[in-house]
């Protein structure tokens, strides 16, 4: 239910702008392609930390917009953007709109303060910076794979939890917990999908990567919230299945 509420919040925000029909259609397609992202998790993390439902929906919608922009950037870089046509021309326009939708939503109905927004901005720039390394790498080593996971996965989720927990007692833990969860989740997904970031590693390094990510996840496991427990469980299972 929470995922649906966040999706509807994001969709309503776009519709309210009365954009050109082609623009609205493209943005909705980008959102649909990103529905595997952190919609329900961020909303639940907000509510469990004491954020009211309206602000929780807005904060989660902001994370959804940001995730959709990042997902689009990744799909464009990998040649996987099958939902926009022509992708190489329309995609950058949609990415620009989605990223700004995130900032507007966080700073508006999400009620995220200026200092937190600054920190989120820094985190997301650093997260994106390692994609410049990732797309130029043909064969990965353990250290490079770890750095990419910490940035593209960890810093991204650290930013989302900064927004989710802004103004709550958990705010001081947001960056550490989000980075741990995002990094471990990124590694787990690479293992599940047989991404070249892990398939090009020697077996010993692949096992070391899984152990490293599992140890990082202890920082998220230490916070007693159902949303974190639910997010950690499948990640833990995937990491510990590596032999």
Can you offer a commentary on this structure?
The chain is globular, with a radius of gyration of 17 Å. 46% of the residues are buried. The protein has two domains: 1-111, no CATH class; 113-243, Orthogonal Bundle (Farnesyl Diphosphate Synthase), CATH 1.10.600. It has twelve helices and no strands. It has 243 residues and is mainly α. Helix 1 runs antiparallel to helix 2 (21-33), helix 3 (39-48) packs across helix 7 and helix 8 packs antiparallel against helix 10 (203-216). The longest helix is centred in the N-terminal third of the chain and has 26 residues, at 53-78.
Corresponding CATH architecture of the largest domain = Orthogonal Bundle
Number of helical regions: 12
Envelope shape? globular
- Name of the CATH homologous superfamily of the largest domain: Farnesyl Diphosphate Synthase
- Mean pLDDT comes to 96
Structural class: mainly alpha
Given as residue ranges, the uncertain stretches (5+ residues, pLDDT < 50) are none
Keyword list:
mainly alpha, 2 domains, 243 residues, 77% helix, globular, Farnesyl Diphosphate Synthase
Task: Walk me through the topology.
Elements: H1 2-16, H2 21-33, H3 39-48, H4 53-78, H5 87-107, H6 114-134, H7 142-165, H8 174-193, H9 196-199, H10 203-216, H11 218-221, H12 226-240
Helix pairs in contact: 1-2, 1-3, 1-4, 2-5, 3-4, 3-7, 3-12, 4-5, 4-7, 6-7, 7-8, 8-10, 8-12, 10-12
């Amino acid at each position: 239910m929470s995922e649906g509420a966040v999706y509807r919040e994001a969709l309503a925000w776009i519709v309210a702008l009365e954009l050109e029909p082609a623009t609205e259609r493209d943005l909705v397609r980008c959102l649909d392609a990103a529905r595997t992202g952190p919609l329900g998790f961020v909303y639940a993390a907000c509510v469990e930390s004491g954020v009211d439902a309206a602000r929780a929906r807005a904060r989660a919608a902001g994370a959804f917009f940001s995730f959709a922009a990042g997902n689009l950037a990744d799909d464009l870089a990998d040649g996987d953007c099958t939902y926009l046509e022509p992708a190489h021309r329309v995609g950058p326009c949609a990415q620009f709109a989605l990223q700004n939708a995130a900032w507007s939503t966080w700073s508006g109905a999400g009620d995220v303060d200026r200092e937190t927004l600054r920190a989120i901005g820094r985190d997301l720039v650093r997260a994106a910076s390692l994609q410049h390394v990732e797309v130029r790498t043909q064969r990965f080593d353990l250290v490079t794979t770890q750095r990419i996971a910490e940035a593209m996965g960890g810093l991204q989720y650290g930013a989302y939890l900064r927004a989710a927990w802004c103004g709550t007692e958990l705010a001081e833990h947001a960056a550490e917990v989000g980075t741990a969860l995002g990094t471990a989740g990124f590694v787990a997904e690479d293992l599940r999908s047989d991404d070249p970031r892990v398939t090009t590693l020697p077996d010993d390094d692949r096992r070391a990567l899984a152990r490293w990510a599992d140890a990082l996840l202890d920082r998220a496991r230490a916070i007693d919230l159902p949303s974190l427990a639910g997010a950690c469980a499948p990640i833990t299972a995937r990491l510990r299945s590596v032999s």
